[in-house]
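Board work, copied verbatim: Divalent metal cation transporter MntH
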Amino acid sequence: MAPSLGEAHSSMKVPQNAAWWKKFLAFVGPGYLVAVGYMDPGNWATDIAGGSQFGYTLLSVILISNLMAVVLQSLAGKLGIVTGRDLAQACRERFSMPVVMVLWILCELAIAATDLAEVIGSAIALKLLFNIPMLYGVIITAVDVLVILLLQNKGFRALESLVIVLMATIALCFGIDLFLAKPDMGGVMHGFVPSAEILQNPAMLYIAIGIIGATVMPHNLYLHSSIVQTRQIEKTTKGKKEAILYSTMDSTIALTLALFINAAILIVSAAVFHSAGMTQVAEITDAYHLLTPLLGTTIASILFAVALLASGQNSTLTGTLSGQIVMEGFLNIRIPAWLRRLVTRLIAIIPAVIVTAIAGEHGTEELLILSQVVLSLQLPFAVIPLIMFTNDKKSMGAFANKLWLKIISWIIAGVIVVLNVYLIIQTILLF
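↓ predict structure ↓
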């Protein structure tokens, strides 16, 4: 089976007999493409709601979900490096065709839901910054496809560089907003300690599950298992071991940056809204409009919107890449990259245009929440096969998961399945 993303496969050389930091720098990139999904516009609504309603309490949930992500992404990277197969290809090889087709359809739905969140997030940012009506903003985001194509023609490193620049922009914007918000540092530190109240308070638990559902993204597991293969490594045990180490370091550092950004969104919301007694701020637009009067400066709101736009654009890049990987892996068919991206984007834009035209801006906010529920539904169907494959000694050999990692992985899978089922039931009851 030909590798997915054939144009970029083994396209980047890793220096041999060089200092460890030079080798590590050669592996820096894929982790940041993955980390993007952990701070997309879908995360913003849950973080803002969590901060405004419950102050700093749910910071522990962001930390726990990030630790889960670190483990799962390291497994995805290891699968790609050791077997030379991404998660979609591994599913195609191991499961029957009816199962493969179901997994493919579910994955396409998840990618469409992710792209929907990106489209809506970018459109909201364009409205906030330039007062462009939502309907036009949604249509403008279709142009992203052309930008992505242009970048990929310049090589995979160009794509990674843009993602890192956009991530740094988001981090800088929220770093300044954090400084302006002057949060209670004692409260922040205490918020990172898990509280029993989260499980006892149904409203708090609902938002906590929403944070986990919006944080661990199914398409990221497919994406990571493929893009780690863009590095040209030695196919020996030593070469693979080295690649796994540097790849895991890359994704862990990148996900730590994502943790900072997600935590910053919640901290700003808690420090500005919760402390002012405004506990019902849950929508991105409301948060933008309230930051200026509460902090006494328009720069806070502008930085918030710029970060949102950067977040939407970044997530678009990785979502379309995931679409290509999933189609090539599950179906083993190759279609031109421009056509694949156009199809992915249209699937997201059409419902966003319809809802915006009929229900207006409030409808798009509800669509954003619905997209996160669709992602929650798909998550177990990506996590469980990933753990199965990386536990398997037949395909992984000496790199199969050790007993302690097997236990941790299955606990994470169990937590994700139970919490997502609960989230889906509660969302159905709400609607």
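Residues 337-391 form the longest helix (55 residues).
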